[in-house]
Amino acid sequence: MKLFKKILIANRGEIALRVIRTCKEMGIKTVAVYSTADRDSLHVRFADEAVCIGPPKSADSYLNIPNLISAAEITNADAIHPGYGFLSENAKFSAICRKHGIKFIGASPEMIEGMGDKASAKDTMKKAGVPTIPGSEGLLSNLGEAKKVAKKIGYPVILKATAGGGGRGMRVVWEEKDLEKAFDSARQEAGAAFGNDGMYLEKFIEEPRHIEIQVVGDQFGQACHLSERDCSIQRRHQKLVEESPSPFMIPELRDKMGEAAIKAALAVQYEGLGTIEFLVDKHRNFYFMEMNTRIQVEHPVTEEVIDYDLVKEQIMVAAGAKISGSNYFPNLHAIECRINAEDPFKGFVPSPGKITSFHSPKGQGVRVDTHVYSGYTIPPFYDSMIAKLIVKARTRPEAITKMSRALDEFIVEGVKTTVPFHQRLMKDENFKNGNYTTKFLETFDLSE
Amino acid sequence: MQLKEIQELIRFVSKSGVSEVEIENNGFKIVIKTPIVTSAPTPQLVAVQTPQLISQPVVAATQPIVPAEQVAVATSSPKSGENSRFITIKSPMIGTFYRSASPEKPPLASVGDEFKKGDVLCIIEAMKLFNEIESEYAGKIVKVLVDDASPVEYDQALFLIDPA
Questions:
Q1: Residue B124 above 60 pLDDT?
Q2: Domain B81-163 falls in which CATH fold?
Q3: How many CB pairs under 8 A join A and B?
Q4: For B51, which of A44, A61, A67 is closest by C-beta distance?
Q5: What is the model's pLDDT at position A120?
Q6: I need a surface site. Which of A102, A145, A150, A288 has the fewest CB within 10 A?
Q7: To which CATH superfamily is domain A134-203 assigned?
Q8: What pTM did the predictor assign?
């Protein structure tokens, strides 16, 4: 194993800070990149070196591959950590790094392409013996085939775009008479959004839980799992709260899901940190949904319950270290609330601007991952997440109480945040009973 | 710190025999290093303005002498008074800045040179490709703000010009 001397972090905000911190602890030099809008950002100041890579628009800066590679060249970085979002699952970027002799701390271009294409990923999983949602074999050639498959597996069904993401190119169909219209509009939307109108069809799992398994694979063909995170509390397919262990989990289910996740990782010879997302129905049947070949926003939840630095693990594996091969199980309970600069009582409308006062919660079992500070101006060009509040405790009720206490201490003035939403959630009876699915927020009271 | 003060500071440091001076004041930081070789100590100015940081290598005395007016200052605001009409030309890309098309050729733009819009002022090399940087303005070079063969970032000030 040969550890890197200098890592360029091709990202911004809290995740850039997160990676810089672990690099410092490992004695690795860091290079921050920033757009002109992020000149005053904390990650720029914490890194050993910083390079301005473009104007505010992401396409011209954080997504600008030539600029990022140039920045790595002039600073002599030997590896790039892409964080999450941006280019972290961009096969072209992974390939270009490889071509320039820079280690991409993430998945290979082949892996990214394989898992990015939803229809072929599902096929790969089926062959590996991982349970998948009943549906079409690959892409649908026409409406007639869609009708046939839907009839066979039974309504309700969901049409999905193979190149899709973020909920686009998706339509739920409850009866056969609605299929044609849904098929045409989904195809059009997918073509416009992703340049690829390929569609496939699956059984629509009603009121599922979104439970994902964290996996790690090394360069020597080994893989292991680090247990689950329940991410069912979502709004328009964007996660708001995550926790581990899942209140719906039982040991037998965890063993089965963990084993399936390892099978999935081994089937693609996965190297690095990855997450297998599953849908779990009320009978505790689980189905492969997708694989994320990057570190995730909610990784701190797993870090807190298994006591492990996952970014460090990513860097070590990328440098050629072997994993032990043991699985890890939660021995505490952790919850994460994503704090966004949005107004929860006005449809979560973004609220950028200057933070005039910022005081984050502290105390035993409280962790805040953030890049903002008093006096910081949130630029309007990027996503609205300003902090992640993570608590850990010995039991779930204690974690919820601690989260409530921490949220009450969280002061952010100058912009609106989702703190009041999380405060209300922590007091909700159904949430406290662990009684929630991905449909939860649809009926949640969001009046002021 | 004004440009005049910086120039006086450089002259002072070069005469004093001190090898390194670092001054930090109100968000502005300046580091002046003198190479340790003797006969003609040439002060190599490494100016750093937080939070923007690119550390430039200290130039050994065997390399071409850095003209006294070459100041690597990463500031984009024109100076007050007679300098208020001056414009800084900034880098549109990231890479290594070269003053001439190749080592034997003369610099493309030196202090006092007049140029038209579209004239090539310098070369920036990135990923083994040499990019000719054309001027958007016509005018005269007042100062060259970056050393030859040093790394530049997006928006970094390259030349101070007196526009026509």
A1: yes
A2: OB fold (Dihydrolipoamide Acetyltransferase, E2P) (2.40.50)
A3: 60
A4: A44
A5: 84
A6: A145
A7: ATP-grasp fold, A domain (3.30.1490.20)
A8: 0.80
For A243-281, what is each residue's pLDDT tens digit?
Answer: 999 999 999 999 999 999 999 999 999 999 999 999 999
Do A216 and A272 contact (CB within 8 A), yes or no? Answer: yes
CATH 3.30.1490.20 occupies which residues in chain A?
134-203
Q: How far is B103 from chain A (nearest CA, A)?
A: 19
Per-residue pLDDT reduced to its tens digit, A53-106: 999 999 999 999 999 999 999 999 999 999 999 999 999 999 999 999 999 999
Beta-ladder partners of A350 = A342
- Select from A39, A55, A70 the Cβ nearest to the Cβ of B51: A39
A209-443: in CATH 3.30.470.20: yes
Q: Judge whether A70 is closer than 8 Å to chain B, CB to CB.
A: yes
**pLDDT surpasses 90 at B158:** yes
Task: Output the CA torsion sign for B4, B8, B9, B11.
Answer: positive
Residues of chain B neighbouring A41 (CB-CB closer than 8 A): 51
The residue from A294, A394, A396, A405 that is catalytic is A294
Q: How far is CA B84 from the centre of its chain?
A: 19
* Extents of the domains making up chain B: 1-75, 81-163
**Minimum CA–CA partner of A96 in chain B:** B127
| Cα of B155 to nearest chain A Cα, Å | 7
User: What confidence tens digit (pLDDT) does each residue in B56-87 have?
Assistant: 333 333 333 333 333 233 333 444 455 689 99
Contacting residues for A184 by C-beta, under 8 A, at least 6 apart: none
Q: Give the Å distances, CA to CA, from A251 to A110, A207, A404, A407.
A: 34, 22, 28, 31
Contacts 24+ apart (CB under 8 A), A166-174: A166/A237, A167/A236, A167/A237, A168/A193, A168/A194, A169/A193, A169/A194, A169/A197, A169/A199, A172/A204, A173/A204
**H-helix or E-strand spanning residue A150:** helix A143-153
- Distance between CA atoms of A24 and A31, rounded to whole angstroms? 11
pLDDT at B42: 41
A284 is an active site residue: no
